[in-house]
């Protein structure tokens, strides 16, 4: 493989490790309905991106990149609520599958004005997607446990996650919401990819993706604050805020910003149709470890065996999609 591919895969691995730990600090505090926590995450990500922007010499801000951050912010605002019903593992897995499929389809078929990225083996590429979808469908039958995410030292009351209902309707709505959020996550980089693929329309647009991150998180922060204002108005100026959760949630935002930096380096060196599946699905392995061994969200022999089988399908799918870039069956 070329040096660009090695750099791309190394960046994708780094992004995967960081993406898998974004919500770990957040899950150990009382995040309530998640809207205030989301705003703090946006602040943390913005501060980290400001530091990175300074290291790059403060390149010009590209306005269209703001919309990518807006798309991410809309999806991320509801993730914590979904986790209260499905748990961190299932929420992450469902979002990852839909993010992967959306990012793959956008790049593979040249949707939304992007150039189509044709893999070396179309057959392998489609077979990998079939495996990915099969594994994603299997996640729907896995049941998670109710858990206590309080900190004992605070003796705080049980949070919304401990009171969640296991009704089929609520579970179905949560899965649909996770799928919608995953689709948004899979589309968040599309405005930036569009700018990079149309130099005739954006002659001053940087060639490297990392130069867009500051604008991306400017959009994310603006949308996060806007969502919080709407939320505060709905709550009649009595928003739910946990002061002790501010730093952990901002830390989650910092981790996410660093993960995105590695992710865009991966996209620069790999096609989006390759980078998205890797960065969307590889973090799930670490998330599953956190969820099963630390948070105890999923237990029981049947659940664990079914989960292992489902993840096996998705992992094999990602590997096949990756191989389809360079290798052909003919």
TrEMBL record:
Lineage: Eukaryota, Metazoa, Ecdysozoa, Nematoda, Chromadorea
Molecular function GO terms recorded: carbohydrate transmembrane transporter activity
One CC-aspect GO term: membrane
Assigned protein family: Belongs to the TMEM144 family.
Protein name: Transmembrane protein 144
Membrane topology: Multi-pass membrane protein
Keyword Transmembrane: yes
Keywords for the protein's UniProt record, in alphabetical order: Membrane, Transmembrane, Transmembrane helix
Ranges that cross the membrane: 6-26, 38-55, 61-79, 86-105, 117-142, 172-192, 212-234, 246-267, 273-295, 304-324
Record InterPro entries: Sugar_transport (IPR010651), TMEM144 (IPR012435)
Location in the cell: Membrane
């Amino acid at each position: 493989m070329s040096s660009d591919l090695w750099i791309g895969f190394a960046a994708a691995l780094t992004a995967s490790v960081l993406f898998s730990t974004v919500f770990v600090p957040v899950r150990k505090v009382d995040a309530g309905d998640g809207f205030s926590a989301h705003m703090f995450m946006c602040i943390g990500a913005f501060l980290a991106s400001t530091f990175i922007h300074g290291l790059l010499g403060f390149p010009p801000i590209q306005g269209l990149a703001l919309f990518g951050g807006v798309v991410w912010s809309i999806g991320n605002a509801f993730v914590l609520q979904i986790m209260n019903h499905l748990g961190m593992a299932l929420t992450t897995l469902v979002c990852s599958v839909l993010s992967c499929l959306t990012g793959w389809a956008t790049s593979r078929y040249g949707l939304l004005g992007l150039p189509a990225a044709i893999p070396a083996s179309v057959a392998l590429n489609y077979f990998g997607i079939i495996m990915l979808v099969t594994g994603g469908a299997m996640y729907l039958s896995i049941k998670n446990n109710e858990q206590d995410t309080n900190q004992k030292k605070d003796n705080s009351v049980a949070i919304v996650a401990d009171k969640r209902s296991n009704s089929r309707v609520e579970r179905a709505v949560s899965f649909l919401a996770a799928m919608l959020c995953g689709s948004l996550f899979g589309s968040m980089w599309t405005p930036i990819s569009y700018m990079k693929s149309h130099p005739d329309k954006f002659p001053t647009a940087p060639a490297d993706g990392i130069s867009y991150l500051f604008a991306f998180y400017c959009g994310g922060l603006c949308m996060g604050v806007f969502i919080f204002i709407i939320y505060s108005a709905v709550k009649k100026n009595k928003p739910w805020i946990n002061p002790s959760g501010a730093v952990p949630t901002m830390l989650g935002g910092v981790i996410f910003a660093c993960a995105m930096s590695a992710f865009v380096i991966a996209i620069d060196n790999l096609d989006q149709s390759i980078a998205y599946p890797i960065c969307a699905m590889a973090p799930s392995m670490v998330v599953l470890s956190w969820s099963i061994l630390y948070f105890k969200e999923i237990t029981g022999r049947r659940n664990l065996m079914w989960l292992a089988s489902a993840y096996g399908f998705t992992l094999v799918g990602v590997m096949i999609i990756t191989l389809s870039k360079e290798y052909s069956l003919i």
